[in-house]
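Issue 218. Parser rejects a valid record. Input:
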Amino acid sequence: MRISAFRLVLFLIHAIGLQAGLLVPTLVAAQGMVEPAQNAVAGAQVYGERGCVGCHAVRGLGGRGGPDLAQVEGRHSPNELAATMWNHIPRMAASMRERGMAPARILPRDAGNLFAFLYTLDYFDPPGDASEGRALFLDKQCVMCHQVGGVGGVVGPSLDFLGGYRSPIPVAAAMWNHGPAMAREMAARGITRPTFTGRQLRDLIAYLESTAGVPADESTYVLPGRAAVGRSLFTSKGCGGCHGPQGRGGIGPALAGRGSPGGLIDFAAAMWNKAPAMTREMSARGVTIPDLNASEMADIVAYLYATGYFSGSGSPDRGRRLLGEKECSGCHRVEGAAPALDPARYATGTQAFAALFNHITLPEIEDRDWTVLTGEDVGHLVSYLTSFPR
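Output the parser choked on:
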């Protein structure tokens, strides 16, 4: 989902006005579940209401105390963002005290919306090149069947709607669902079925985005969904027949702990590239090739996150040791009294982000007493917390 510059300016002006001390703390007793869909527009409001804009500019609008979040280079995982925010809490708390602002808590669903907003700023992945994407649209002969911005064939559907989403999750679902019919049509026309690298697909999405209008304020799927639901779908949709229980082997490659795609764009490209082999195998085994909507794809992606497919699994043993090394166990007791923690609450990093952020409400936070975490540390801690039986 693209945020228009005008709408973003409105949110930032509103948010900057709140720096005068009009913020009211949001007190919550429990952490809500992360929804499979997020709203980037709502995330922009969270960004303003939580005071982020007081220190961090967005495309030059806002504070100057921290980096402009629309200009941070490289790939950044949700765990790295959670760790960065945690390390920043003492300075953030001091700044809020100076401004007379009461520390506000955040719900995981708000964290998910905030992540969606940051995704629209290309914080998590480097932006694609729209001009390269246009060249790919022509070179890969997509233009023979599909229209973009009113240009192209009419055999297949227009692709403008995918540019409005900007998210690889609905792109992966659309590419999977369209694959069998497209393969037949291309064979009939003598066109070689193209493959895509992650980088090429990122450029193609950037091109689609450049031609799309600004969609309505609606939710989209920019983050993984619900791991528990995804696990059921992995079986009911027939994935487990080839990739084994819990994604650990079978006729197809093992998925647990694979750590291969690197990101959602790479995952979408892999789904497209491997679709012919997967559909042939499913047909040979008498398995109906399923359609996947965006919500189902988000949930399956969340399940794959929980198995360590994207970034590798953290170490529960290392996480347990970190609780002591980082002095978390001075306040938090886990062993012997652990709640039943669902991996779905941690698969995307938004639950961890919210839990760490809410430490800002602690009294008398001091820099000298504050421990430092890395994104890898957060991964190990989450792996330990989710190792308990549900």
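Fixed in the parser; the record now loads. The first strand starts at residue 147 and ends at 148.
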